[in-house]
Amino acid sequence: MNELMEKAKMLKSVAPRLAALTAEQKNQALIFMAEQLIASADFILEENEKDIAAGQASGLSRALLDRLQLTRQRIEEMAEGIRQVAELTDPVGEVINSWERPNGLKIEQVRVPLGVIGMIYEARPNVTVDAAALCLKTGNAVLLRGSSSAIHSNKALVHVIQQALEKSDCPADAVQLLEDTSRQTANQMFRLNGYLDVLIPRGGAQLIQSVIEQASVPVIETGVGNCHMYIDETADPQMAIALVLNGKTQRPSVCNAVETVLVHESWAKAHLQDLVTALKEKQVEIRADDKARALVPGLVPATEQDWHEEYLDLILAMKVVADVEQAIEHINRYGTKHSEAIISATEENVAKFFQQVDAAALYHNASTRFTDGFEFGFGAEIGISTQKLHARGLMGLPALTSSKYVIRGQGQIR
Amino acid sequence: MNELMEKAKMLKSVAPRLAALTAEQKNQALIFMAEQLIASADFILEENEKDIAAGQASGLSRALLDRLQLTRQRIEEMAEGIRQVAELTDPVGEVINSWERPNGLKIEQVRVPLGVIGMIYEARPNVTVDAAALCLKTGNAVLLRGSSSAIHSNKALVHVIQQALEKSDCPADAVQLLEDTSRQTANQMFRLNGYLDVLIPRGGAQLIQSVIEQASVPVIETGVGNCHMYIDETADPQMAIALVLNGKTQRPSVCNAVETVLVHESWAKAHLQDLVTALKEKQVEIRADDKARALVPGLVPATEQDWHEEYLDLILAMKVVADVEQAIEHINRYGTKHSEAIISATEENVAKFFQQVDAAALYHNASTRFTDGFEFGFGAEIGISTQKLHARGLMGLPALTSSKYVIRGQGQIR
């Protein structure tokens, strides 16, 4: 039996024991995990150093090396993250609904863990700890498949997590790392129906696309954000400029950053020059359509590709539109169903935008940057779903659960 | 452009208009649909006759021909089904959650349609009407792909539905039938991400398996039921026998019928003979393990395959187990996560069964036959999900919806 099947079987067999743990038992295991991480910092950093050295030798980009790098502070942040997860309310066991039928059957819908979760992710080793903590909190077993560039770090982290679990009531086998990072084995993992209940890919658009195309296990699609801000005719100019600057520049590398600004033509005639000036002061490169370029000379022309682009950088696409309908049409055509904003003083247009834009989070007069677990008040999040099934938008702990109906009778038949 | 792409684009383009319809507008359209079906009964029966004639010529089984056959009464039943859907509460627009953040952002989670639903199903033409009504009620556009053996009936029904929609505020394009029933086009449909938001297969295990394996569009897995009853040591003998008889014989052809009975060895020693006698009186063929055969001579031996089988017939697999743990293990190994029952007077064993059996609906002292939309009080159902994502067990109208977050601010930035 290969490593994948061996670990998948192990996870499937511990899943019922995990589902039966109390919130206290799971929280205790999380506290042990946090402590063990801190206590094992030297070991973790040594192993991480091997990945960094290999990454430097193979010419990884500085950005990737930075994501890969662990420090004593980052380990402390991971431990703190785990402690925060321990403090969240345990969703498992919640009675979602209950009712009695005329024939005396008592029906309850109870929240239960999903079972075994497969996580596929890229370089960052903190996802290893994050995913393990969130899955454990919700009573799920987890199969982690990180990238080969982080293999030493991930092995060290999972070893430390398992040590912590051994001290707890939680089975140490509940968290497994797939050490074979070949593409072939990943493809086998994507089709492990009967062992994995769900796959959650976290990473770039290409990773997510390949999981969606190849998986037969149900997938939760996360994270790609080609987000828009639409500045309506009646938008307050100062507010609009502040929101676009925040959406684009406060942290350009994240999925809820703004990638395209759509501007009503009347507003553009009066204020586009001011918006462009403000963006240029922040070193934002603008790629604009012909109408915008006619109003503000000297802008780089946008191509069709720019409307599709998730730049994750200080680049912004810009288009002048005739009305809110045209803005909605553009967003529904090019958006990735993540976060979309309208800046307007016209309630009718806001209502139309909220009704017709097909996305997980819709904002009126606020930055798209608020699509975030902590900003929503959910605490830790598993990711941001851009699909419509199961979980949409921010995924808090309940997104890692399912439900079952339990029905009590006294011999009822049909 | 082929038929599939043409219809998929049409559906995607009408979806936002459907999402904006009021409950009254949708209910009015449903009433028109019911009326038009009755008014067009002659036309529908004529077209259905073509399918029946073709089916007879190609040697379809009597059971399949019966499923295919429409009658004036069946058309009236379909119309009545639509009227019942009209009377259900519209889930769209429901505010699932709402809260305010310390920074003044007001967040609402609102229920919305899924968008465009793809239904793939087998011979029965009533699924065409059923699916159209449920999708319309929830503001979804729907692409119907029935089997080639029902093509004339399905074309006639969709034509009639579209005639009805033309009289209503609902776009007539909202319901489309894929007339090209080739396997190649079905495979293309399964991978139509960006146009279809979900695929729901309804039919036999083979159809569902092939959709799961081939689809990249998210799938809701439905309906295959290898359901068990476990008779515990303390089960009331009369109740246990009545429940097994009901689960197996009241309607053997449906997914919530019992396929295997697991019997605690002490109970078996005292009562297995009575259970077998009762089953034989109802013409049930029993396939039993060695322990059961030792207690009741003359039973057919069960093979490994019998534990996997969804007979949908008057055949029952039977196994004697040592305790509730062994019963749970058997169910989690061979079950299809549909409906499972324990008959017992020992609350501790019931609790263990409810906790550890991984299935959508768990029964104590009641028949598995209650897993049904009307029996649960949901009214019409879309199917019974045997997966854990999105919807589990009985799918009422909310299973055909998603949600979006709408956030109102006054210029908040991060």
From TrEMBL, chains A, B:
Record GO biological process: L-proline biosynthetic process
Membrane-crossing segments per the record: none
Domain called Aldehyde dehydrogenase: residue spans: 43-287
Enzyme class of the recorded protein, top EC level: oxidoreductase
UniProt GO molecular function: glutamate-5-semialdehyde dehydrogenase activity; NADP binding
Catalytic activity: L-glutamate 5-semialdehyde + phosphate + NADP(+) = L-glutamyl 5-phosphate + NADPH + H(+)
PROSITE patterns per UniProt: PROA
Superkingdom of source: Bacteria
HAMAP family assigned: ProA
Family: Belongs to the gamma-glutamyl phosphate reductase family.
Function: Catalyzes the NADPH-dependent reduction of L-glutamate 5-phosphate into L-glutamate 5-semialdehyde and phosphate. The product spontaneously undergoes cyclization to form 1-pyrroline-5-carboxylate.
Protein name, as recorded: Gamma-glutamyl phosphate reductase
Source species: Caldalkalibacillus thermarum (strain TA2.A1)
Gene encoding the protein: proA
